[in-house]
Amino acid sequence: MRAAVHALLLALAAALPASGETTGPSGLPLPRFASLAGEAINVRSGPGKNYPVRFVYGRLGLPVKIVEEFDVWRRVEDHEGDTGWIHGSLLSRRRTVLVIAELAELKRTPTRDSRVLARAERGVIARLLDCKSEWCFVDLAGTRGWMERKALWGVLEGEMRD
C-alpha cells in the first residue's frame, strides 16, 4: 500500500509544471509568446466583446506575451508593457521577435566576430527559429542567421536551448 501511494505521489509531482511555471486553462504554459495573426486587432479592457476597445494593434506578426487566459480570451503584454485582452483566434503560434536595439546585426554564426549578413533597425520583426545561450537563430526577410538575444524582445529567459 505504501509503495502504491508513493508511486501515485511521484506521478502527480511529475504532472505538475516546473517550479515557477503556471499552466493556463488551455493547458499551455503562462507566460508564453505568440504573434498577431492579423493587421488590425482590437485590444479590449476585459475578456469579452462587451468590454471597450483600449487600442488597436496594426502590425501582422508582432510578438506579444500571453500572461493570462479566460475562456477563449488571452490577456497579452507588448514590448512597451501595455496590456489588454485579445480573442485567441487572433493570435498565431508562429514565433516572432522584435528588434529592440537601435541596430542589430544578423551574424553567420553565434559569435561576436562572425561575418555580418544583414542589419535590422529597432522595430523590425523577424521569425524566431531557435535560441541558445546569448544568441537566437532567426529568419529576417528570408535571410537566416544569429542575433544577440539582448537585442530582441519575444523570448522568455531560459526558453529554448540554453
Description:
The chain is 9% helix and 46% strand. It has one helix and 16 strands. It has one helix spanning 2-15, and strands at residues 22-23, 29-30, 32-36, 41-44, 53-57, 63-70, 73-77, 83-87, 91-92, 96-99, 103-107, 116-121, 125-132, 135-140, 143-148, 152-153. The strands form five sheets. A five-stranded antiparallel β-sheet has the order 8-7-6-3-9, with no helix packed on it. The chain starts with a helix and ends in a 9-residue tail after the last strand. The model is unreliable at 1-19 (pLDDT under 50).
Structural descriptors:
five-stranded antiparallel beta sheet; elongated; 2 domains; SH3 type barrels; 162 residues; mainly beta
Give a brief outline of the structure.
The radius of gyration is 19 Å and the shape is elongated. With 162 residues, the chain is mostly beta strands. The chain has 2 domains: 20-94, Roll (SH3 type barrels); 97-153, Roll (SH3 type barrels), CATH 2.30.30.
Strand percent estimate: over 45%
CATH topology grouping of the largest domain: SH3 type barrels
Level-1 CATH class name of the largest domain? Mainly Beta
What strand line-up does the widest sheet have?
8-7-6-3-9
CATH superfamily of the largest domain: SH3 Domains
Structural class computed from helices and strand pairing: mainly beta
Q: What is the N-to-C succession of helices and strands?
A: HEEEEEEEEEEEEEEEE
Shape: elongated
Radius of gyration: 19 Å
Query: Termini distance?
Result: 41 Å
Q: Can you count the helices?
A: 1
- Examine the secondary-structure arrangement and name the CATH architecture of the largest domain: Roll
Helix content: under 10%
Poorly predicted runs are: 1-19
Biggest beta-sheet profile: 5 strands, antiparallel
Average pLDDT works out at 88
Number of domains: 2
Beta strand count: 16
